[in-house]
TrEMBL record:
Keywords: Glycosyltransferase, Transferase. One of its GO terms (cellular component) is cytosol. The keyword Transferase applies. This is alpha,alpha-trehalose-phosphate synthase (UDP-forming). One of its GO terms (molecular function) is alpha,alpha-trehalose-phosphate synthase (UDP-forming) activity. In the C-terminal section; belongs to the trehalose phosphatase family. The lineage of its organism: Eukaryota, Viridiplantae, Streptophyta, Embryophyta, Tracheophyta. Its EC number is 2.4.1.15. Transmembrane segments: none annotated. The chain holds residues 82 to 580 of 940 of the full protein. One of its GO terms (biological process) is trehalose biosynthetic process. It comes from Actinidia rufa.
Length: 499
């Protein structure tokens, strides 16, 4: 007798994102080491379990030879079998050549769209050169999106839901619908969508909007980002905005907000793991007698790391009694290291940290511990758990899941979250956090003072608000809501056509 397979039906989901959840580094001709990728998108999707998912994306590495490509595809399959999350069936790599990566990823995505969507404007140095390279970078962007579409089409089966992610793949919905008009296509943006006045400065503004509108459902983290997108479509394209979305010649693209979350259980469970407990003991011993402040960010200009450190310096200047009683641990995960702006930022941060440690350090203690690397999951959970005050002071941020991860790990300590009003998370955790304008260093310094002196009752009340939110609005729920809305949208559209 064989036990019948009674697993519930799980919808097949093709997740398409520029980056796979594991990134590869070549160790030998056919050997690879694989690491979990950094960033909010991967953290969130790690929590999604309801679907039978395949993830299509770039492995972060250039693999020109076929033998290497075969070996990497196999290594990815094995890594997934180790199953760090239940439902991911396969990781399917998209191979991009060096020139495309340079022009599409370093250029159009990270030098143009990323800063623009975070209100940092278009590159301004040499306008003429930028305009010329803009054309070729946009061509590479479209070509890369077409390459992603070809891989999706190869793996697509009727009934699949195709979920495209982020600013790298704004052209993808259009490419996919050209392959198959009936494909169910959703697109979700993990960054802010800026005011239409910002978007309209982009030379390819209309082409990108039209390409996104080919999707059936378009999602954003917040209602404001969705509203900005609809305004861009009405003002720049002259289309009609409705409460449901954007209408173009009788066809509706549904537009809505789907605030992301994390797999909070994964963090809460980790706190009981003996290795994490051991880390917690070590950290408490290491920083005994000092309050611990924590920043965890990719080393990116949108994260406001220099501004945060300058605010901490101001706090030390104004509060000599806190010297040697407080320490700032700043974990700065290197990212996009081939883009010159990111290289400049690294040197800038090192310079400021060195100056402040020279100024306020003693022979036995320094005020800032700055690490240029990521921590493994268990070390990170331990750090979150021992923190008294977390500083999330992004200049702009789509959502910011570090703030969620911190809250999930704080049910014992009930530490304080200082949070930028320009992070999407301010809309969900604003009532529990101390909200700040990260550009106002005096205000951030004052909020550090407020956080370090906050009464236990007040901390408890604020933490409770945030903890309830973080544990009730999970990544799982986010994904289920988006996919079910996408299914409904397609069915409704079919009904409309039949009527
Ligand atoms: C943000 C983006 C993600 C991206 C991540 C890491 O969270 O929204 O799409 O994957 O940053 O950046 P990277 O360029 O290393 O993929």
């Amino acid at each position: 007798w064989e036990r019948p397979d009674v697993r519930p039906f799980r919808q097949r989901l093709l997740v398409v994102a520029n980056r796979l959840p594991v990134s590869a580094v070549r160790r030998g001709e056919e050997s690879w080491s694989l690491e979990i990728s950094a960033g909010g998108l991967v953290s969130a999707l790690l929590g999604v379990k309801e679907f039978e998912a395949r993830w299509i994306g770039w492995a972060g590495v250039n693999v020109p030879d076929e033998a290497g490509q075969r070996a990497l595809t196999k290594a990815l399959a094995e890594k997934i079998r180790e199953a760090f999350y239940d439902s991911l069936q396969r990781c399917i790599p998209v191979f991009l050549d060096e020139d495309i990566v340079h022009q599409y990823y370093n250029g159009y995505c990270n030098n143009i769209l990323w800063p623009l969507f975070h209100y940092l404007g278009l590159p301004q140095e040499d306008r003429l050169a930028t305009t010329r390279s803009f054309q070729s970078q946009f061509a590479a962007y479209k070509k890369a999106n077409q390459m992603f579409a070809a891989v999706v089409n190869e793996h697509y089966e009727e009934g699949d839901v195709v979920w495209c992610h982020d600013y790298h793949l704004m052209f993808l919905p259009k490419c996919l619908k050209e392959y198959n008009r009936k494909m169910k296509v959703g697109w979700f943006l993990h960054t802010p969508f800026p005011s239409s006045e910002i978007h309209r400065t982009l030379p390819s503004r209309s082409e990108l909007l039209h390409a996104v509108l080919a999707a059936d459902l378009v999602g954003f983290h917040t209602y404001d980002y969705a509203r900005h997108f609809v305004s861009a479509c009405t003002r720049i394209l002259g289309l009609e905005g409705t409460p449901e979305g954007v209408e173009d010649q009788g066809r509706l693209t549904r537009v809505a907000a789907f605030p992301i979350g994390i797999d909070s259980e994964r963090f809460i469970r980790a706190l009981d793991v003996p290795q994490v407990q051991e880390h917690i003991r070590e950290l408490k011993e290491r920083f005994a007698g000092r309050k611990v402040m924590l920043g965890v960010d990719r080393l990116d200009m949108i994260k406001g790391i220099p501004q945060k450190i300058l605010a901490f310096e101001k706090f030390l200047e104004e509060n000599p009694s806190w010297h040697e009683k407080v320490v700032l641990l700043q974990i700065a995960v290197p990212t996009r290291t081939d883009v010159p702006e990111y290289q400049k930022l690294t040197s800038q941060v090192h310079e400021i940290v060195g100056r402040i440690n020279g100024r306020f350090g003693t022979l036995t203690a320094v005020p800032i511990h700055h690490l240029d690397r990521s921590l493994d999951f268990h070390a990170l959970c331990a750090l979150y758990a021992v923190t008294d005050v977390a500083l999330v002071t992004s200049l702009r941020d789509g959502m910011n899941l570090v703030s969620y991860e911190f809250v999930a790990c704080q049910d014992a300590k009930k530490g304080v979250l200082i949070l930028s009003e320009f992070a999407g998370a301010a809309q969900s955790l604003g009532a529990g956090a101390i909200l700040v304008n990260p550009w106002n260093i005096t205000e951030v310094a004052a909020s550090i003072d407020q956080a370090l002196n906050m009464s236990a009752e007040e901390r408890e009340k604020r933490h409770q608000h945030n903890f309830v939110h973080v544990t009730n609005h999970t990544a799982q729920e986010w994904a289920e809501t988006f996919v079910s809305e996408l299914n409904d949208t397609v069915v409704e559209a079919q009904l409309r056509i039949r009527q």
